[in-house]
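so my prof wants the structure for this chain in the tokens format not the other one, which i didnt know existed until like an hour ago. anyway here's the sequence
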Amino acid sequence: MAFEEMWEALRPIGRGDGGGYRRFSWTAADRECRDWFAQEARSRGLALDQDRNGNLLAWWDVEPEPGPGAADMVAGAASIAAGGITGDPMAGRMRRDAVLTGSHLDSVPDGGAYDGPLGVVSALAAIDLLRERGVSPRRPLGVAVFAEEEGARFGVACLGSRLVTGAIDPARARGLRDADGVTWAAAMEAQGYDPELIGPDPDLLSINCYVELHVEQGRALNAPVGVASAIWPHGRWRFDFTGEGNHAGTTLLGDRRDPMLPFARTVLAARDAAEHNDAVATMGKVRITPNGVNAIPSSVQAWLDARAPSEAAVRATVARTLSAAEEAAGWDGVEVALTEESYTEVVEFHTALRDRLAKTLGDPPVLPTGAGHDAGILSAHVPTAMLFVRNPTGVSHAPSEYASPEDCHAGVVALADVLEELACR
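here's what i got, hopefully its the right format
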């Protein structure tokens, strides 16, 4: 099966000794993933397009009806398939009302193999299966690889789809910095993109629908494949604790303004706030300055990830955590400030599309998720839906994330069935 061949070719890219992945945007591993996708797309005769926001798209175009200009269109499509990247405006117009699928190839630090790549590999394998069935699209069928979905390098999740939809200001996106101070603009430019061109893409938002296949990120799915009902509201907030740097050996405890102390209390407060509001909250990233063994820190930056079934519960969790942080900071003579870096409201997937998928697949389980996805960002502009493939470990964003070969195959078949219904009939 082509799925296994593609999976084995992609598996080593960006993988560390511990089995986790570090495929961060605009790095060597990211470039290698992009090259892999381009090669797979071209080997299938798909037209490859890279948009101005860093997203990749591979298109299986509709065969033109016989008539004036048809020969030129066929020749142009053949040229695109052979040569690679297209910026042809006619191609964009031809792809209005397209069906789009796909996911992402970037990862969180030491992430698992399936989150993102499963959707991309399955999409290409589904096209192979459709061709084996002898069917062709009646509307263009595309496979997307969205950039910076995890937000692991530049801090804003689903950045590629946020730029497409106008959910983030391009100027803000250009100025986002990684841990080494490199901006999104500089990183894009180093890979041959013009960061001044990033922004909303009306052509891409003219598609008919977007369907994303993803490994389930929990243990709620009791069948090989399920359909998503909704995405919980979720967001990321940055706490800035500012104290006074000093010597660890000569500064008396009573003279210290140590920002680590209120930070530590805030971590515990976030857990308490989540339990109080039936939410989940995580402080999994921290940046300490100067980060020396024998130095009292001068500042601590810490990030809170909060999610819940309702916006009220998310907001209450953040507010309760901030109140505790402010109280703790006051005890230690430390200043604290809170910045909301990103927030996504609850996403109820397009009801008619979701029901159509469920009917096509024989009424599989329908379940919500607490994880964010590009499908959630696009949903405010185009009909979107998601398929989940069972994850028996229940672990995600870690090396033990897993889906069995049998369930992966079931996912490919399900996606092919859905794409045949949406694009080929």
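also thought this was worth mentioning. The chain is about 35% helix and 20% strand.
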